[in-house]
Amino acid sequence: MRLLVLMVIAACGPPPRATALPELVPEERPPTWLDRTVSLRTMLGRAGIALDTGGARRTLASKECETGPARRCVRCTLLDERDGLPDTAMEELVAAFARYPITLLDAAKIERVALCRKLDTNDGEDEPAGLADTESRVLFVNVRSLLVPDRAGHSIDYIAETAHHEVFHLLDFPAGPRRIDLEWDQINPNGFVYGGRKGDGRPFGFVNAYATTNGGEDRASTFQFLMARGQELCDLAMVDPTLLAKARVVWRRIASVADLAFLRAGVSCAGDLD
Ligand SMILES: [Zn+2]
Questions:
Q1: Is the pLDDT of residue 94 over 50?
Q2: How close is the Cα of 85 to the center of ligand 1, in Å?
Q3: Per residue in 66-77, pLDDT tens?
Q4: Among 106, 126, 147, which residue terminates a domain?
Q5: Do 135 and 191 reside in the same domain of the chain?
Q6: In this structure, is residue 224 part of a structural domain?
Q7: Which of 10, 13, 89, 127 pairs with 97 at a CA distance of 20 to 30 A?
């Protein structure tokens, strides 16, 4: 009995010194290349779009590369982890696609997005920042200028602008790039002929010199500004009625496939475009 009492008293003594509990919160670690590609793949997967990066499949070429020189052959050398794309560039791309409602991505009928560290074409022109293959429904993004920091190239936010530009090409060409677009052409001044202008200055009626290349580039560039440079576009459109008319047409065409809420936030002159 005495033994039992002693044992009870002992059990009521000071608690044993607390031992450290195992850490339940995992240690923060920066996202890896795999994490970032999974983010982009997931974002695109919302609309059933595949993502092509390097690995087993090193290049992606358009069908025209096999069938002969009649059409433009596009050959993308796929980007992989070893290329060292800045992390923020991948984040920009994820954020760019996150802005789109699924209805718009569905309407663009994009099958895949290919990230290229090099993008070659057989048309003798400079290596493009992006391309839209309207036959195979592939959107190519060329990040080469971001892999060579010393080279004068595009800034990281240009990767998002490129994506927006190419998304519009895939929305815009249901009947091929030579589609006649009378409504659009009539907005241009009498006698104007597309064909590109030299120099960097902005010609009246266009967001930039590149937009004077052809109607498709004009529309895609206007949309690119609506998505990425809304305030700049509004400022220009207020003093350029031709550009305002073009922005209205693009605005209305986008409204026919998706709710415009995703565009309105960055476009202060949205009320003038409705
Ligand atoms: Zn273009």
A1: yes
A2: 23
A3: 776 667 789 999
A4: 147
A5: no
A6: yes
A7: 127
> Which residues have their alpha-adjacent CB atom under 5 A from ion ligand 1?
217, 220
Residue 11, pLDDT > 80, answer no
How far is 57 from 42, CA to CA, in rounded Å? 20
Each residue of 103-142: pLDDT tens digit? 999 999 999 999 999 999 988 778 899 999 988 999 999 9
Rounded distance from Cα 198 to ligand 1 centre (Å)? 17
Tell me the CA–centroid distance for residue 20 and ligand 1, in Å: 60
C-alpha–C-alpha distance, residues 6 and 18, integer Å: 24
Spatial contact of 136 and 173, defined as CB atoms under 8 Å apart: no
Q: Would you say residue 174 lies in a domain?
A: no
pLDDT given for residue 211 in this prediction: 95
Specify if 175 maps to a domain: no
Q: Tell me the C-alpha distance between 34 and 51, whole Å.
A: 13
Are residue 140 and residue 215 in the same domain, yes or no? Answer: no
At 30, the amino acid letter reads P
Same domain, 44 and 131: yes
Half-sphere exposure of 102 (CA within 13 A, CB side): 8
* Residue-wise pLDDT tens digits, 232-262: 999 999 999 999 999 999 999 999 999 999 9
